[in-house]
Amino acid sequence: VHGVERMIVDRVGHATILPNLIPLGTGVYDTDENDEAGDETARKVLYERYSKQMFGVCLRYAGHRAVAEDWLHDAFLKIYSTMDKFCYREEGSLKAWMMTVLHNCIIQHVRQPSVLEEAELMDEGMEVADEPYDDSLLGVDEGKIVAMVAQLPVGQRTVFNMFVFEGKSHREIAEALGIKEKTSSSQLFRARRSLA
């Protein structure tokens, strides 16, 4: 293991190795193993490297900046406190793990009982036909799409994000959110109809 590869996770959590995450001369490697300043520097570098993209994901789901900021904060607290569960495998594995933690935190927030109950009740007895692929959003500016999605009701917004951006099936969405597959399908149908 090269000195440069000794990483943030050594400082933030436990002895896991990440290649080239922190450039030499940042001071992260030069501190005593128990030095809290080194730990804080490692956390800061980790946050600076990934927070912007993660905030974008939070904003897509939350629809409101303040809520997205809270969710991002919660996700980083979870990441820092569970860093010992991360195991470096290859380039990109840290980012993938962090995004998984982020998505799990978001789903926990969205699964609050009151959030999806209304969607479940609205979908009782509703039949949704399979829709052909809808390309009406192709060519639309990404920022505009995010703004449009943010205006959707929380159930529609959540299902749309999971289906479109994460590639989850209705079965996976239903399982993650604790709803019926039929509810997932109807929420996606309504979201697409609203965005068209």
Describe the overall structure.
By secondary structure, the protein is mainly alpha-helical. It is built from 9 helices and no strands. The radius of gyration is 20 Å and the shape is globular.
Distance between the termini: 53 Å
Classification by helices and strands:
mainly alpha
Give the biggest beta sheet. Answer: none
Using the CA coordinates, give the radius of gyration.
20 Å
Low-confidence stretches: 1-6, 13-34, 125-133
In short:
By secondary structure, this protein is mainly α.
Structural descriptors:
single chain; 196 residues; mainly alpha; globular; disordered N terminus
Layout of helices and strands, plus pairs?
Elements: H1 8-12, H2 36-62, H3 65-81, H4 93-110, H5 113-123, H6 142-150, H7 154-165, H8 170-177, H9 181-195
